[in-house]
Structures are given as C-alpha cells and as structure tokens.
Design goal:
The structure is a homodimer. Helix content of chain A is about 35%, strand content about 25%. Chain A is of the alpha+beta class. The first copy, chain A, has one domain: (Glycosyl)asparaginase (Glutamine Phosphoribosylpyrophosphate, subunit 1, domain 1). The relative contact order of chain A is 0.18.
Chain lengths: ~325, ~325
C-alpha cells in the first residue's frame, strides 16, 4: 500500500513539474540585425552567383550594423538598410522593381516602431525614389498609417523626398522578365522584396519592408508589403518581423501578427512560432510560399522560409554574423 | 503518516483537476447575424433619432437574416447586408460616404470567407457603386486579395459591376460636414463605416466591411476597412469580426486578427477577447476608439465598443434579436 501511494505521489509530482515552464537562460544581445532581399526560386542558386549576391547583402548589412554598433536607433538601422536595398538594382524594390503588366512600376513599403507601435506605409506609388522613407514620414508626420497612389506621392513631394520619373526604377533584367511573362500570359512569382528587422542598444525593435510587388501585376494589385500585421510588425516586448513571399497568403494569414500572437499568447519560442506559421500554415496553402526574418526581444534571430532560397544576412552584437542565399546548416 | 500521504494525493488531484478545461455546455445557433453601421459620437443619440436609425438597421438586418433563414450562405448574407447599408445614404459607405479634403469620395471595402480563408478587398475606389461587391469579385475571380484605385475600378468594369460618377456618393449632409471641417482645418472622426458578420446553417462564417473613410482625409489615406486582419477576419473554427472606428489604431493593433488569436491561442471566450482588445488596447491609445462586431463558431454574438454609440443590429436562430444605437443593458 505504501509503495502504491509513493508511486502515485511521484507520478503527481512529475506531472506537476512538467507543467512548470522550463526557461533556459537566454543570452541577451546588445543589438541584433537581420535583412532579407527576397525568397523564391525553383532550385538552389549556383555557388558563384550566390557569392556575388552575398557581396551586396553584406554591404546592406554593414549599413544597419554600423548604425546599431554606434548606438543608433533600430528605426534608423532598418530604414537605411532598406534604402540601400531599394537603391541596389539587383532586388525587387526601388531601382530594379518588377514591372506591372503595362510596363510601369508600382511600389509598396511599410515600417513599424516597436517602442510605441507607431507605423507608416505607402502603396501603389510610382515616383518616390525610396518608398521606405515615405513610409517613415507617414508614421512620423501624419496621423495616418497608410497612404496610397497619387496622394502618397503628393505627401512625399510636400515633405521634400526625392521624386523620380517612373522609368528610374526600370532595369533591363526586369524588362526582359516582363516580356517573357507577357509572352506566357502569366504573372511572375514575387521574388526580391526586401526588408530588415533590428534590435538596438536601447531595447527598441523596428521592422521595415519594401517591394515592387509581383511582375506582370495588374488592376492596382497590392500585396502584403505595405500591410502592418501581414508583412511587417514590431513590438519591443515580443518580436519584430519582415516578410517576403506570396503576399496574398501573408494577408490572408496575418503572418507577422500571427508570429507575434503565437509567442505572446501561446508561449511559443520565436523559432517555434516562425516554423508554425511558415510550415503549418503558409506551406500548406496553394501558392509560392516565402519567408520571414524575425528578431525577438533578446536579439535572437530566426530566418524561416519554405522556398528553395532566401537572400539574407544577419549580425549580432555577440559576433555571430553571415550572409546566405541557399539554406545553410547552422540555421 | 498515512493521513499526510492521503492529503498530498488529494492536493495533487485538486491541482490536476483544476488544470482540466471546464467547458460549459454551449448552445449552438443554427445561424446568427450581426451588423454595424458606425460608432462614435461624444454623446448618446436622442431617443427619437435612435428610433429612426433603428428602422434602417432593422431593414438591413432583414436582408441578411432572410438569406440565412432560407439556408443561404454567410457570404451572401454579409455581402447583401452591406450592399443595403452602402445604398442607404445615412451611413458612411457607398451613397452617403464622407468627402475627402478636395470634395471627392474614396471608398474601401473587404470581405472574407471563413470556410477557406479566402479574402478580397478594394481601396481608394471612386466610381464603383458597391465596393463590397468588387471586394467579393476580387476574392472569387482573381488570385489577389487587394486592388487599389483606378486598377480596382478597371477590374470592376471588366466584371460588369455598376460604375457611377463620383458625385453619386454625395449627400447634402456630408457636404455640410466637409465645409465645417475645412473651416476648422480639421479631419472628421471616422463615423458610419458599415459591416456585417454571419454564421450560416452549414457552419460557415463570413465577414465584410465597407467605408468612405475619414471626412476631410487627404493624400490617399486608407484606414483599416480594406485590411484583412485589421478590420475584417473570418475563420470557421474560431470567429468572424468586422470593425468600425479609428482605422489607424485598428491597423497598428491588427484588431480582427488579435481577437482571433486571443481566442485560438490564449483560450479566451469571444466576450473576453473583444473586451481585451477594445478596452485594454484600443481604448488606451490616443484616438477616437470604435467598436467590433463578432460571431464565434457557436453563433454567439458580441458587440464591443468604447464610443458613446454604435449603430448595430443582430439576430440569432434561437429568436434573440434587436437593433440599437445607444448602449443597452442586455449586452
């Protein structure tokens, strides 16, 4: 009888102890930064091309990393990193944006400040050189979050932002891509959206995303990039997220907010939350998938994608850093 | 010694049993519907005005209720109810929409199907008589979720939807409101957005929202109404939500998805989740607040608002129904 009782107590104790949260000690980074410049592809990128991409990814990373190392804000870091990526013709944002079906460029961008949950975004703009700068000014100088089309351009002009002819964004590569899509009566997969998430020395998280959208798009189609809660979120207490991928899926699943909610309400780790959303939700939907880059309040970085490749680079105050396009073992 | 052991076992058993979910038996409605037509105001509405509003709210309700009673789909019920509200000049959607700073109308709408998480939306449209119809066609006949501006109009025209001159939406009341705002160099509070959520006999939940936005808005400002996850969400397994209020707050908090997530990930009841978001998040932010209407998978209805009034009407298969503007005790 005694033995049975002791066994029961031990069993109870085991069940009870398993209910307690097992919190491993977490190293908190002083600062942390991660960027993406698109995800997609039906195969891995050849090694030499990857090496070329990594040069630009590392240069972009250095922009934000330098700001953070010098005690600058996460907001400045993500904005300036995205400006670099917008100006780089390699990616689908700013210069180098894909073309709409009628051979033009319509750009979207968003930014969020995790310290106060303020946010700004622009959608369907055709002449603002750096849409992410416009998004930041919407956040800081208007009572609004989202401005679209000509109205957004008028605002950017009033604010003294650089205005360019629509042809500024055109590159020969994207022209050829559109010609091929028109021949096939198809729309392209959304590749090359750019974004950045950062945690600064003051514990502030910020996130920004910018894109030219989907090649061959029409009817003023807007994806997830300018939608706070879909592509972009920042909350100092939980996480910052920026996304790249098949925007419609991101909107339907409120991907960025879903990662936030799985962490805050369900207690999932950043890795678990990002995995759950990308693999158990996005990957199960009909579409071309994509990826997210995330930083939690401790500076932990997660880059999760269900595509063959994702252009990305990352750095932490503890010294860990890198750039990659194809999957790497350490992630 | 025996007594101590028995006490310990009992204590363990109590702790364990308290871990089990205590699910009360819930009455499941055969169908359920709730609509809103805006929230706001600095004081309660006079009784006689409320009575006039209730006539229109009840008429709108009858549209959707009849569809549900006859075995129609939640999607048809919310679309047709919102079409009625768009056509009614009393509310800020379709005919009767507020005016932008330059005396025009820019309309936004969204719809979501909780059976498959498909969604559609339009933003900044100026000539589509019923934006909610366009939102539904975006969902059903394109691979996209969000179309904006002239592109959205071109799509609506291709689909044979009724196109009207921008002046169709103008009413004397909204003209006078704009004149007053311009005199005060102000923007109006967002009042009169409309929306509907329904659960049909097949267990499908749908939600739709439509608005003219904020009176005196400029720069192509877009609020939460066309943003899936902010104003509108539908998921058969959890909840449907439509919102009205200060759209920027809704976008920053991903309100509709937040209610979903608090229920699905944190186990809150519909009432608790809506209360948490409206009172502990929205009401604590600087802004003019607003409200949400929600239906969970059992057909339970919650209407939560932090404003003085919210135009609303509701009905359940079990017989409970009503229309109200001012707060009522039974809620």
């Amino acid at each position: 009888m005694h033995k049975k009782l002791i066994f029961l107590i031990l069993a109870c104790a085991m069940v009870l102890s398993s209910c307690e949260e097992q919190k491993p000690t977490v190293q908190k980074e002083e600062w942390s930064i991660v960027l993406h410049a698109g995800a997609g592809g039906s195969q891995l990128m050849p090694k030499d091309t990857e090496d070329q991409y990594k040069i630009f990814l590392n240069e972009a990373l250095t922009v934000g990393k330098t700001i953070l190392e010098n005690g600058g804000s996460a907001l400045d870091a993500v904005e300036q990193t995205v400006v670099y990526l917008e100006n780089c013709p390699l990616f689908n944002a700013g210069k180098g944006a894909v073309m709409t079906m009628d051979g033009r460029h319509e750009l979207d961008a968003s930014i969020m400040d995790g310290s106060n949950l303020m946010a700004g975004a622009v959608a369907g703009v055709t002449d603002i050189k750096n849409p992410v700068k416009a998004a930041r000014l919407v956040m800081e100088r208007t009572p609004h979050v989202l401005l679209i089309g000509e109205g957004a351009s008028a605002f950017a002009r009033e604010q003294g932002l650089e205005i360019v002819p629509n042809s500024y964004f055109t590159t020969e590569g994207k022209k050829a891509e559109l010609a091929k899509l028109l021949e096939q009566h198809a729309q392209g997969e959304p590749h090359g959206t750019v974004g950045c998430v950062a945690l600064d020395k003051n514990g502030n998280i910020a996130a920004a995303t910018s894109t030219g959208g989907m090649a061959g798009k029409k009817w003023g189609r807007v994806g997830d990039a300018p939608i706070i809660g879909a592509s972009t979120i920042a909350n100092n207490d939980v996480v910052g997220v920026s996304s790249t991928g098949h925007g419609e899926l991101w909107i339907r699943q409120s991907v960025a907010h879903d990662i936030y909610a799985l962490m805050d309400y369900k207690g999932l780790s950043l890795k678990e939350a990002a995995h759950e959303v990308i693999w158990n939700k996005i990957d199960k939907m009909e579409g071309s998938g994509g990826g997210v880059i995330c930083i939690d309040k401790n500076g932990e970085i997660v880059m999760e994608f269900d595509t063959k490749v994702m252009n990305r680079a990352w750095a932490k105050s503890s010294g860990e850093c890198g750039a990659a396009v194809n999957p790497v073992v350490s992630e």
